[in-house]
């Protein structure tokens, strides 16, 4: 595990699921963590849980679809903990269905959260990372950013777009010592799209994904794993 003492991390969508697993792992490794979700009380309670296990964390109510909310998120990290070293852009939603039933509001909810929200976070975070002389940006993509499926127009578009965004961002900032990677999980046991955690033992867990994030932060500086796919090793047979 890397030693993240003195490092400051932001995890969007950190109140539950994959984001909470990553936030807890970062705090365990010594980082001060700012996590957010739209539901402020859930974000605060997740941060309190991390703090009760000895970590340093704060929870904020932030909607990544709102540029001003994202500005407040970055400012909170720099004001409260003195800077920013790690951004994990994890917040995301599902939204599925055939195109003639996929209403414009649903399209916008998926694209604005999974793609434009990540743009806002990176746009605001990069100057703060540069001030520290470098850092990490990890976006949480999906295998749906590589494989299409029926009913996936909005979600596939958001995650294919996110992968392209992340790769271009990596090229933009790598000479500033900002290391950018996209982690692309398969099915993870979370609340995603109305799922109930605990019902599918074959799925990945948030801790599995968190382990990959920590490994990226621990990786030697000369090489950069810029895209990591992680999938259940024994998925349910179709
Ligand atoms: N679970 C899977 O099988 C799977 C597979 C591949 C990739 N992923 C990706 O992993 C990421 C996390 O998903 P998850 O499975 O952990 O889902 P989850 O259990 O539903 O958690 C999603 C988190 O994102 C937050 N969130 C949603 N919209 C937000 C917004 N506009 N602003 C701020 N926070 C927001 C949620 O809190 P609020 O609702 O309170 O805002 C929650 O904290 C997503 O990007 C998803 O696409 C998931």
Automatic annotation (TrEMBL):
> Which stretches are annotated as coiled coil?
none
Q: Which domain of life is it from?
A: Bacteria
Q: Which GO terms describe its biological process?
A: monocarboxylic acid metabolic process
Against InterPro entries, the record matches this protein to:
KR_dom, NAD(P)-bd_dom_sf, Sc_DH/Rdtase_CS, SDR, SDR_fam
**Ketoreductase domain spans which residues?**
7-205
What SUPFAM superfamilies does the database record attribute to this sequence?
A: NAD(P)-binding Rossmann-fold domains (SSF51735)
User: What family, per the record?
Assistant: Belongs to the short-chain dehydrogenases/reductases (SDR) family.
Q: What is this protein called?
A: SDR family oxidoreductase
């Amino acid at each position: 595990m890397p030693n993240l003492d003195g490092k400051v991390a932001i995890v969007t969508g950190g109140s539950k699921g994959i984001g909470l697993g990553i936030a807890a792992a970062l705090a365990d490794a010594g980082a001060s963590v700012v996590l957010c979700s739209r539901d402020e009380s859930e974000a605060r309670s997740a941060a309190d849980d991390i703090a009760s296990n000895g970590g340093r964390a704060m929870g904020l109510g932030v909607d990544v679809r709102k540029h001003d909310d994202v500005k407040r998120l970055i400012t909170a990290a720099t004001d409260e903990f003195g800077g920013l070293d790690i951004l994990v852009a994890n917040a995301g939603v599902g939204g599925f269905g055939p195109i003639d039933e996929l209403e414009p509001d649903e399209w916008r909810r998926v694209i604005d959260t999974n793609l434009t929200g990540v743009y806002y976070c990176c746009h605001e975070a990069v100057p703060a990372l540069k001030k520290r002389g470098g850092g990490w940006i990890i976006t949480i993509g999906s295998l749906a950013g590589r494989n299409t499926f029926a009913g996936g127009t909005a979600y596939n578009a958001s995650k294919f777009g996110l992968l392209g965004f992340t790769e271009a961002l990596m090229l933009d900032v790598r000479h500033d010592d900002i290391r950018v990677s996209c982690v692309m999980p398969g099915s993870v046991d979370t609340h995603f799209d109305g799922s109930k955690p605990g019902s599918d033992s074959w799925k990945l867990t948030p801790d599995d994904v968190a382990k990959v994030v920590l490994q990226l932060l621990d990786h030697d500086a000369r090489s950069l794993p810029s895209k990591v796919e992680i999938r259940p090793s024994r998925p349910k047979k179709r």
